[in-house]
Amino acid sequence: MDHSDDEIMYIDSEEENLLGDDEDRETDENYDELADQDDHMKRSEKSYVVLKEEDIRKHQRDDIERVSTALSISQVEAIALLLHYQWSVSKVEDEWFTDEEKTRETVGILKEPVVDVNGEKEIECGICFESYTGGEIERVSCGHPYCITCWTGYITTKIEDGSGCLRFACPEPSCSAAVGQDLIDKIAKKEHKEKYYTYFLRSYVEEGKKFKWCPSPGCEYAVDFGGSSTSNYDVSCLCSFKFCWDCCEDAHSPVDCDTVSKWLLKNRDESENTNWILAKTKPCPKCKRPIEKNKGCNHMSCSAPCKLHFCWNCLKPLSGHTACNAFKEDNESETKRKRAKDAIDRYHHYFERWESNKSSRLKAISDLEKWQSVQLKELSAILGTPETQLQFTVEAWLQIVECRRVLKWTYAYGYYLLDHEPDKRLFFEYLQGEAETGLERLHHCAEEELKQFIGRTEVPPKKFTEFQVKLIGLTTVTKTYFENLVKALENGLADLVYSKTKSTEESGGLNLYDQMIFSQFSRDEYLEDYSDVV
Predict the structure, then answer these.
(1) What spatial distance separates the first Cα and last Cα of the chain, rounded to whole Å?
(2) Which residues fall within 8 angstroms of residue 486, CB to CB, at 6 or more apart?
(3) What single DSSP character describes residue 176?
(4) Digit-coded pLDDT (tens) for 267-316
(5) Residue 277 parent element (H or E)
(6) Total Cβ atoms within 10 A of residue 397
(7) Which of 75, 221, 429, 445 is the most exposed place for a label (fewest CB within 10 A)?
(8) Which candidate in 297, 324, 403, 445 is catalytic?
(9) Are the beta carbons of 523 and 509 closer than 8 angstroms?
(10) Is 302 a catalytic residue?
(11) Tens of pLDDT along 307-329?
């Protein structure tokens, strides 16, 4: 692909905005613009910006021009400096104005050539040792001469080797002069230029650290979080994938990144297998191999070559065994085993529910895609109503997907909630339970009750209107419920502990959850509204 001297740092691309095929994405990332309806309305309020490829190129070009202008150097030299200092404009300027000569030497942009062959009729290539005219020789800032054929092979090899082609030096072993982008544009073939500029663009995001790529497979968007001081780093990419900008895991509010890291590591950690072995097995008293009891009687037989027969309860050999029913104090091994069993049971409690909500969310995404692509059109035809007037069903499914995500992470939150704060734990479990109950109502309504209108020749208008009021009401109530739950958990439940100075009666008979979520309404007004949709 050709490049003019004025645009040496960018290649044209007919497909620069092309995303990967939808079929290559995982189910969790595959509901396209279905979630965009909510996100686009809120995007102006967000503290981040989703960048397309042309946006990234513009930022990159602006930084190059800024350095070139500030330092009064060519854009080729500015690019070499920015690549060396990982696209930090401030670092480049600091180093340059502190010691220009040292910076030039470090980066490899020499002011004067170390070899001068100007005026010579025939010049010997430093690689193939053939003689060439001046027009058949190319040099970088050091002046070492090489023929175009040797330069082409050298540059091609570097580009094929990977992203290291962004920073490589003159072929002369003792020379550190940088090979500039102008030479690559002049020498490299079209396919190698495209590969080089792909590395060039990606380095701006990956090394510059101002932006981050969306981690969704096939997505080519990046996100600029803008240096916001918020504690919530959840972002929604234009491809509809939601992730945490800070740790690049799936969006996980209301849980912080440290908790997510610990939880995911625990889920993968082989130490849980060790805990299971400790909790569910006992060591053979002779060979010490762990043995699991798989029959009813206490007569245990270790496998070959040990073949010891012993009692499961007391771990004594059956030869000469006596009754072991009497209690013995200070049985340290049994105490450890019980603790391990309690720990693994507790972990399984939270993990199973975390996994269950994860599965329910994936199923909801699948149901939403099916509803959007097939069933919504069918219902529109049955009712004789435009699809735009049935969007409340899509909004309900979108809310279910989001709430399943939040509810999933509340179980990781609960697992790490400290035991020495029993009041906070009890209150959290109450909030979590109420949220789960409300979500189940909404999910059941969208999943089961909506089915009654599909596959019919006609639907009584009054019956569908009643269903519409119910679904919209449940969607609204559940959305409010979860938004406030997220705020409360992100705040560590700090403002939601029982006050020692005010009684429930003093606050109008409302419990703290009601005060938190429905402070703008009286309890009677809320219960009246909620009863209409339940």
Answers:
(1) 63
(2) 253, 254, 406
(3) -
(4) 877 556 666 666 678 888 888 788 888 777 888 888 888 889 999 888 88
(5) helix 271-280
(6) 26
(7) 429
(8) 297
(9) yes
(10) no
(11) 899 998 888 898 888 888 776 65
